[in-house]
Design goal:
The protein is an alpha+beta fold. The protein has 14 helices and six strands.
């Protein structure tokens, strides 16, 4: 019997949204609301690859377009940039970008407020002879003004990474933080050396965010530090972002560390994401004792994930929900699986693999 994967993912998504206390929770209830990722979760490399025009620079002026009866609430404007680096598209020293910003709820649109003297990396497209953001909420990201040496436009991805790494030395704390978070969005293994320098030598805040960024590059060597951080809970950023990122772990060498995090974390979000990684991504028999134990977890979503993991790894009928299952089927199935695990599962052949 197979599990209803779309239904599983809907349940897990609602749990993640509620745990992070983002506006996502509201959007999960209102189907018409567009979900907006926080800037540190944006996949920068994917965004750049989808954008025909990518540049970074300083906003020199912002001018209103047409009638703006309430510009403090909603305005149509053009931002003029002094370009410092042109990554993709035809290079110009000056770039003008039409945008709309709204301070009121607008279904996840018009989120970016360009202000003079702020620095951005911009992902744009040309429309009707002017530039517009490729995405009106994720199409521009704040950056440090610091730049690396010019590579001569031979490799835009390496140049972007080098510029973000240069920003790690920004004297301004927000500039450093933006640089760390942009490296997280690039997800490049080549960034790990620079990130580990921040982890070991940076401020407490920078170090925590660098651990998050390293995780996004697939660096599982930071998991012992993750365990230490999440031992105090996962209700604040960046701990909740780190906890959420654990669900994407696919490196089997991470299994022992993930089990240690799962067994010792007080945070429901952490336990839910780690059971997802162990039971859905890795499906490693070494995780079975912990998954079996978490069938009794106080959090319903962790119990559900433990059930799914046991089913995926053992294919045991007692742990497998029927094809047309509903939420009412979950707890009885967890009890059935728990009984099977205690009586038979602990001595199964997979435990010796």
């Amino acid at each position: 019997m197979s599990l209803d994967v779309p239904r599983i993912r809907r349940i897990q998504f609602v749990m993640f949204a509620a745990s992070l206390s983002f506006v996502w929770s509201l959007c999960a209830i209102r189907a018409w609301c567009r979900l907006v990722e926080p800037p540190y979760m944006v996949d920068v490399r994917d965004l750049a690859e989808r954008s025909p025009i990518v540049f970074r620079g300083r906003v020199s002026t912002v001018n209103l377009i047409g009638e703006n009866p309430q510009p403090s609430i909603r305005r149509n404007a053009v931002a003029v940039f002094q370009v410092d680096r042109w990554y993709r598209g035809e290079a110009h020293a000056i770039a003008s970008l039409n945008f709309t910003f709204s301070t009121v709820f607008s279904n996840g649109h018009n989120c970016i407020d360009f202000q003079p003297d702020s620095y951005w990396t911009v992902f744009a497209v040309e429309k009707s002879e002017h530039l517009e953001l490729i995405d009106d909420c994720g199409g521009a990201l704040t950056v440090s003004p610091l730049l690396a040496a010019n590579f001569g436009n031979t490799n835009w991805l390496a140049q972007m990474e080098a510029d973000f790494i240069a920003g790690l030395d920004d004297a301004d704390a927000d500039g450093r933080l933006a640089s760390i978070q942009r490296l997280a969005g690039l997800k490049l293994a080549s960034s790990r050396v620079a990130l580990h320098r921040v982890i070991e030598q940076g401020t407490v805040r920078d170090s925590k965010w660098a651990i998050f960024a390293a995780l996004r590059t697939g660096d599982v060597t930071v998991l012992p530090k993750v365990k230490q951080l999440l031992a105090n809970g996962d209700h604040r950023a960046p701990e909740n972002a780190i906890a959420l990122e654990l669900r994407n772990t696919t490196d089997r060498s991470a299994v022992p560390d993930l089990i240690a995090i799962l067994d010792e974390s007080p945070g429901e979000l952490t336990r839910a994401t780690v059971t997802t990684a162990l039971g859905e991504k890795l499906k490693d028999p070494r995780a079975l004792p912990s998954l079996g134990a978490h069938l009794s977890d106080p959090d319903q979503y962790v119990r559900f994930n433990a059930l799914v993991g046991l089913s995926n790894i053992t294919h045991e009928r007692a742990c497998t929900l029927p094809p047309a299952w509903t939420e009412l089927d979950v707890e009885p199935k967890i009890l059935q699986c728990k009984t099977w695990w205690e009586q038979e599962g602990k001595v199964g052949t997979w435990m010796r693999e």
